[in-house]
Specification:
It contains 10 helices and 13 strands. By secondary structure, the chain is an alpha/beta fold. The protein has 3 domains: 95 residues, Orthogonal Bundle (Arc Repressor Mutant, subunit A), CATH 1.10.10; 100 residues, D-Maltodextrin-Binding Protein, domain 2 (3-Layer(aba) Sandwich), CATH 3.40.190.10; 96 residues, D-Maltodextrin-Binding Protein, domain 2 (3-Layer(aba) Sandwich), CATH 3.40.190.
Length: 313
């Protein structure tokens, strides 16, 4: 029998399945207590398993920062190697399908997409995958990208450009900017609206950190119009609510607001065209978790009746 290594060049055991489950739980939660709750075991059992696993591989797998344990590059590499093991187990006949880490789908998404896109797709996914637990983290687009790049999420969903070496993006929806206004606003009679049409209108803009804000500002500058800015916001749902309260008009991506966030509002296409792209994100390296692949397939096939989204041609 091969004896456990001491991390100093001795022989090493291969990690056990339980140790790999605990490794994945720790990467997902970054805390031993949370990992223990996820797996239904005690916190000391998690700590002992991590210590044994680090002894087996001969390298540290987590570094303590504040109250969290941050995975090292070796931890992510080992998790990536373990993914095919869990995928194979999941395919075996008689696999119990309990809510262990192998059947947890970790999704990171921005707020508006979480509100209008994920619920109907997750409802369909639940019918197909009753044993998979969906863990949804809602945050800013930048935090979503970071979680996917760090493999803290199996997949992400954003509607901003993704210039990050650690993620692989796949565009699943394309739209163009619309002016959102109360349905009784005089400009609602127009099909197309340009910067000069908005010269005297109070406007609510996206926060300056978003690339589309730069494009909107440039469209107004090119037309020689100084917009009457009255507010800024970081989410489309918040901005739409300000429009509903008649604070001002807004230039927004109609997807996914048109799936349920347009009560009392209408949207008219803005010219010049400003493009929005909604993308699925996956870690750039390593395999995609089986549950994430199946969820992505369902999301690609989903055909919402959003009414106002204009595909880019």
């Amino acid at each position: 029998m091969v004896k456990p290594g001491n991390g100093k060049g001795g022989a090493r055991h291969a990690p056990s399945l339980r140790e790999l489950e605990i490794l994945q739980a720790m990467i997902a939660t970054r805390k031993t207590v949370a990992a223990a709750q996820m797996l239904g075991i005690s916190q000391p059992a998690v700590s002992r398993a991590l210590a044994t696993l680090e002894e087996h591989v001969g390298r540290p797998l987590f570094a303590r920062e504040g109250g969290r344990l941050v995975p090292t590059g070796d931890a992510f590499a080992l998790e990536a190697e373990a993914q095919p093991v869990f995928a194979a187990l999941e395919r075996l006949a008689g696999w119990p399908g309990k809510a262990t880490l192998a059947s947890v789908l970790r999704i990171a998404t921005a707020a508006t997409l979480a509100q209008f896109v994920l619920p109907p797709v997750l409802a369909r996914f639940r019918l197909q995958e009753p044993d998979v637990v969906a863990n949804v983290e809602i945050g800013t687009s930048s935090s979503v990208i970071a979680q996917v790049a760090d493999r803290a999420a199996d997949l992400g969903l954003v509607d901003v450009p993704v210039p990050h070496i650690g993620v692989r993006g796949e565009v699943i929806r394309e739209a163009v900017a619309h002016v959102v206004m109360p349905e009784d606003h005089p400009l609602a009679a127009r099909e197309l609206i340009g910067p000069r049409d908005l010269a005297d209108e109070p406007l609510i803009a996206a926060a300056r950190r978003f690339p589309v804000r730069f494009e909107a500002d440039r469209a107004f500058a090119d037309a020689g119009v100084t917009p009457r800015l009255v507010a800024e916001g970081a989410t489309a749902t918040f901005i739409a609510e300000l429009v509903r309260q008649r604070v001002g008009l807004a230039l927004l991506n109609p997807f996914p607001l048109t799936l349920g966030g347009m009560h009392g509002l209408v949207a008219r296409r803005f010219v010049p065209r400003i493009a929005y792209r909604t993308s699925l994100l996956f870690p750039a390296a390593g395999p995609v978790a089986p549950a994430a692949r199946r969820f992505a397939d369902l999301l690609r096939a989903w055909q919402p009746e959003d009414g106002l989204t204009t595909p880019i041609r």
